[in-house]
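One-letter codes give the sequence; each number marks local geometry. A record appears below:


***
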Amino acid sequence: MSLRIAQVVAVHPSRRRVDLVFLDDGYRAANVLVATGGASSDAGSWNVPNVPRPASEAEAGGYNHSGRTMLALVGFVDGGPVVVGWVPPLSGEMEFTEQNREVHRHPSGTWWTIAPDGSVEVHHNGGAYLRIGSGDHEDLGGVAAGGWSPPGGAPARITLHTDGFTLTVLPGGTVTMEADASVTVKTPSVTIDSPQSLFTGAVTVQGAFTYQGGMTGSGGAKSAAITGDVQVTGGDVKADGVGLKSHTHPDPQGGATAPGVG
């Protein structure tokens, strides 16, 4: 099979085909079939980004002045051309020189990578990312040979969902967790440092409970039930505006009033 290199000048995803201009002789081929890594009637893959048609296909010679440059490796089956692979352009933002770096980048700017040490990172074009491994978020602009400046996007909404459970993180930091069944947290200690937290169901604490801040509760006849000692330091316990520490009772002997219970 003879192989030739051609420049992609148009993409037709509905037909899984592209238009080409061959670099060696300028010959134009339309509706060329693209071979993929897997394809069937109900499964497969397609990863051919849109390519702006050059202002003049006569100028197609390995670089597209109108936008994205994409070069195809073309074989011939029964005399007809078939795209069997892709050739990196001579220059671009995907020139990674780091050994054992794997990168996949979408035209939108969303990308995922595996670093040489095995760390995995998925980065949305709005700035949200998930990293598993060592180190902090990676700046691939410093790893790519030609620098990397992917297009930006709107801040991302992150959702983790399965049957009976949804975790949502909104831009700005609001987090909502909804579970149809119980939520159990097993850890030596828990610290909640948030301007506002809301629990809509029963909350059970097994172990020491230390609270610093304000607490608001609402419910039925029994909003809170505590078994064991309650210790308050530097404050007061109030019910309907009456403080356990600050309210007073008349002295039964006719003397001055004094704080206390009774």
Q: What stands out?
A: The two ends are 100 Å apart (CA to CA). The chain has no helices and 16 strands. The longest strand covers residues 3-12.
